[in-house]
Design goal:
By secondary structure, the chain is an all-alpha fold. About 95% of the residues lie in helices and about 0% in strands. The protein is built from two helices and no strands.
Length: about 100
C-alpha cells in the first residue's frame, strides 16, 4: 500500500513541477510537452486511485469475513463454556447420587 501512495506522491510532484515549467515555457513546444506530461500524470494518478479504491473494498470484504469468523468463534466458545458447566453439573449430580446410594 505504501508503494502505491509513494507512486501517487511522485506523480503529484511531477504535475507540480511540469505545471511550473509550462508556466515558464519559452515556446509552444515546451508548453505542449509540459501540458502532455501533466495530463499523463493526472491519468496515472486517477488510475492509481481506482486501484487504491479496489484494494480498499477488497480489504473491507476481508475484514467483514473476519468479523463473521470472530462472531462464530465467540458462539463456539460460549457453547463450550455452557457444555463445560453442564458437564460440571452432571458430575456433581453423579457424586450426589453416589453419596445417596452409599448412605442407603
Amino acid at each position: 500500500m505504501s508503494d502505491l501512495l509513494q507512486e501517487i506522491k511522485d506523480y503529484l510532484d511531477s504535475i507540480r513541477h511540469n505545471a511550473v515549467n509550462a508556466a515558464l515555457a519559452k515556446n509552444v513546444n515546451e508548453y505542449g510537452v509540459c501540458v502532455k506530461i501533466v495530463s499523463d500524470c493526472e491519468e496515472a494518478v486517477l488510475s492509481l486511485f481506482r486501484k487504491l479504491d479496489r484494494e480498499y473494498w477488497k480489504l473491507w470484504e476481508q475484514f467483514e469475513q473476519a468479523q463473521v469468523k470472530i462472531e462464530r468463534c465467540k458462539e463456539i466458545f460460549k457453547d463450550i463454556r455452557e457444555a463445560s458447566s453442564d458437564i460440571y453439573a452432571l458430575r456433581k449430580a453423579e457424586q450426589a447420587l453416589q453419596t445417596l446410594e452409599g448412605e442407603e
